[in-house]
Amino acid sequence: MEELLVVNNLKTYFHRYEGIVKAVDGVSYKLNYGETLTIVGESGSGKSVSVLSLLGLIRKNGRITEGEAIFEGRDLFKLNKEELRQIRGKNISIVFQDPMTSLNPIMKTGIQIMEPLIWHRLMSSKKARERAVELLKIVGIPDHHIRAWDYPFEFSGGMRQRVMIAIALACNPKLIIADEPTTALDVTVRAQILNLMQDMKEEFNLSIILITHDIALAMNFSDSIMVMYAGKVAEYAPVAEFIKSPLHPYSQGLINSTLDIEAKEGSIKPIVGAPPNPLNLPPGCRFHPRCGYAEDICRRVEPEYREIGNNHYVACHLAKGGRIR
Hints:
Layout: E1 3-16, E2 19-32, E3 36-40, H1 47-52, E4 62-71, E5 74-75, H2 81-87, E6 92-95, H3 99-102, H4 109-119, H5 125-138, H6 144-147, H7 157-169, E7 175-179, H8 187-204, E8 207-212, H9 215-220, E9 224-229, E10 232-238, H10 239-244, H11 249-256, H12 296-300, E11 306-309, E12 312-314, E13 319-320, E14 323-324
Parallel strand pairs: 3-8, 3-9, 6-7, 7-8
Antiparallel strand pairs: 1-2, 1-4, 4-5, 9-10, 10-12, 11-12, 13-14
Helix pairs in contact: 4-5, 4-7, 5-7, 7-8
C-alpha cells in the first residue's frame, strides 16, 4: 500500500529548569492511505507529543531536535509557519480529548464548522453554511438544521465530540489525529463515537492516528499498533500480528492488566511499579525496573529497535523468534 506519512527518528525535547525532558526520543513509524494506527501507552509515555510535534503544536519550551516527518512527499519539519497552517485543518485534522475546552463556548457550532472552510478559502460563506449543516447530519446530530446554530454548552458530551469530528471532516483531510477522543465519555457513547470514526474512515477513505491508553480499544479499532513507553517505541506491529504474538514485556503487561468480561478471577495482573521520572531515566532498557524478565544486559544496554518479522518491530533484548526467551 502507498504510504501517506513516514516518521523517522523523531526527537522532541522540552527544556525545563530542572533539566531536559526527552518526551519523544527516537520514534519511527509509517501510516498508509486508508489505515488506522493506534498509539498506546500510559500517561506520560509521549503519545500526544509524538503527533502534536508533526503540526508544530508543542509548547514553547519544546524543540524538535532531530527527525523527519514525510507527509505526501513533504517534510513537515522543514515547512515554515504559513505552509504548516495550510496543512493544519485542511490535510491533517485533529480531534482533541475534551471538546468542551476545544470548542469556542461563545460561538455557535455551525460557525465553528464553517471556519476552516472559509479560512482555507475552499468555499463561500453560503456554501460553508450548507456544508456545516450537512456535516452535522453525517455525524448523526438530530435536528441538524436547528442544532447547527446552538452553542456547545447546549450539547451533551457525546454530541460535542460529534461536532469535533464534523469540524475535523470539514475540509476532507487525508489524515485525522484523534487524541484520546473518548476519555470523558461513558461506555455506550464511547462505542458510538468509535463506530462513527470507523464509518467516516471507510466513507471518506481517511487515515487515522488514534491515541489511547486502552490496549483493548487499540486492538479492536486498528490496522497497526504502536506501543510507547517513556518516550520510546516498545513495539510496533500489524494488529493481527500483535494480537497473535505481543513480544515486548510492556505490551504483554498492558494486555494482562486489561479487564475482560470473560476473564477468570485472578487472571488480571497489573504492571508493578510506575513509569520513570522523565528527568531521571534508568540506564539500559527504560522498562527494566518493572519487567519480570529483566536480565543484566537490560539494566546496562539500551535495546535496539529492530524488526523481528512481518513488519513487526520490538525494542527488547530478550525477544527472540516470536517470544520472550
